[in-house]
Structures are given as structure tokens and as C-alpha cells.
Amino acid sequence: MDKFQEMASFVAVVEAGSFVGAAEASGLSKAAVSRHVAELEQRLGARLLQRTTRRLSLTDDGQLFFARAKEMLAAIDEAESEISSRSGEPSGRLRVNAPLSFGILQLAPLWPRFARLYPKVSLDIELSDRVVDLVEEGYDLAVRITNLPSSQLVSRQLASTRMIACASPPYLARHGTPQHPQELAQHEVISYSYFAAGDEWTFIAPDGGPAVVRTHARIHANNGDTCRAAALEHQGIILQPDFIVADDLRRGDLVELMPTWRAMTLGIHAVYPSRKHLPIKTRRLVDFLVEALAEPGWTVHRAPG
User: Fold this and answer.
1) Alpha carbon distance 24, 252 (integer Å)
2) What DSSP assignment string belongs to the chain?
3) What is the pLDDT of residues 146-189, one digit of tens each?
4) What is the CA radius of gyration of the chain?
């Protein structure tokens, strides 16, 4: 049995939390993954996993071996990436995390194009508005919409998006249309849970002066499309990126509020753990996203520079 395959199957089981999950992630059968782990334990003369009917857990030996095996597999992957970089052809698995709504609305149409350009790259896309730990969770790259990318990570701005305060015409007919940001404090608000400033919304006046208002959310949601859906049902005012609400505004289903006051503009960043030995597959993806999001027809705006 190939020692590399044994290690890869063992690491896949630990990361997936089950033999079934590891089989799905690796493209092998559950029986093959189970055999690889069993033969690894037999060769080492040590039990690495505690198996119960409900869950798997690592033994002390398993924790030690998992850490070392993961390092070795990462080193092999990096070596392959360096060789691929020399030949100019990216290859290997590329794990990407992106926000849910942006991933569906803006990125989903791009993945087939990238796959056709680089057929030896295997894409593993996960959509979540949660801020993941790239290193701890094993991602090659994350797309984040923020003005404050982590200083511990390397980032490149792909584009930007404008935040828009808006509500449905029936809601405004019942509650009135705010003319100044401070009036939002008296309105029903549907708030995005992951806003860095919480329920404090900031606007810039035509003369450049800021206005900060503490809103009172009737609904909190950790996804922008959920906030949008509530607004379309006349439940209150939302502050969401233009790529989520642009079509609704064009149709008149939502109305932009206080258009002379500008809400924040957020950067859309590609974030990765380190610039040192950046795999060519990651570099190619970043370059691809910069070019794709700059094309006419995309709702997001081209990054400066």
C-alpha cells in the first residue's frame, strides 16, 4: 500500500469527521478509505482513531500523527505547486471560501470559465458569510467584502461594492420616507448580523460630513439575501450591497433612500495566508477574478489601480 495514500485517506477522515465524508471528498469508495486507515494503523502498530457508532475521535497517537501527516501532505502539495509554477501550468486542489450571496450572484458563473482555462485544477468552493480561519481550516483563498482585511493575511482588492439603504414602496407609504440618516432610528430595520459596526450605520453628507445613526433592528439575519427578502415583504429598511439590490431598484420593487447621502463603499478582497511560495493555482485564480470582475456587465465595481 502506498504510504502517501494511507496518510491522505487518514487526514481526509479526520478533516471530514467520517469515513463517508472522506470518501466523498477524495473520490474513493468508503471501503477503500476504511482499508487505507486500517492498513496504516496496522503498519504503525498503533490505533489512531477511536470509533463509536456516533462519532470518530483521535487518540493521542492519532493527534500526533495527524499533525505530522498534514504537514507532510502540505509540503508535497507545495513542492508540486512549485514545479507546476516552473512549467506554468497550475494543478491540484484549490479550496476557496466566499460569502453566500456574492458567491451565488457574482462568482458562480465564473467557476466554469476558470475550470476550462485550467483543467488540471480541482475547485472546492464553500459559501459562508462566516469569517473562516484560512490556515486552521485549510483554505487556499477567501473572498471577503470589507474595508479592513486582516493584517495577518495577504490580500488583493478585486473590486468594490456600494452599500445602499433602501425599502419597499408599501413600507414607505405606511411609515414615511426618511430624509436624513438620523430618522432611521425611528424606523423598522432589517440588519445584517456580520456588520463590523453592528447596528450603527454611517453615511456621508453631500458636503463630506459623516452621520452615524444607531438603528433598532426588528430582524437580524446573517445573510444579505434574507435581509432583502424581508424588505421585499415590506418589513423594513435594509442596508445592502448594490450587487444584491440593484435589480430590485431598477424594477422599483425597492427604493433607494437619501440618495444624496452616501453609505459606505466596501472593498472586495481576495485573501490568502502568505505571499511566500504562493502556489501558481492561487495566483492564477486571483488574476482571473480581477479581470473577470472588471468586465462590463458586472454589478460590482472595478478595484482602483
Assistant:
1) 44
2) --HHHHHHHHHHHHHHTSHHHHHHHHTS-HHHHHHHHHHHHHHHTS--EEE-SS-EEE-HHHHHHHHHHHHHHHHHHHHHHHHHHHHT---EEEEEEE-HHHIIIIITTTHHHHHHH-TTEEEEEEE-SS---HHHHT-SEEEEEES---TTSEEEEEEEEEEEEEE-HHHHHHH---SSGGGGGGS-EEEETT-TTTTEEEEE-TTS-EEEEE--EEEEESSHHHHHHHHHTT--BEEEEHHHHHHHHHHTSSEE--TTSEE-EEEEEEEES-STT--HHHHHHHHHHHHHHTSTT-SSEEPP-
3) 875 555 667 888 888 999 999 999 999 999 999 999 999 999 99
4) 24
Would the pTM count as exceeding 0.85?
no
Q: Which residue has the cell 500500500?
A: 1
For residue 75, which amino acid is it? Answer: A
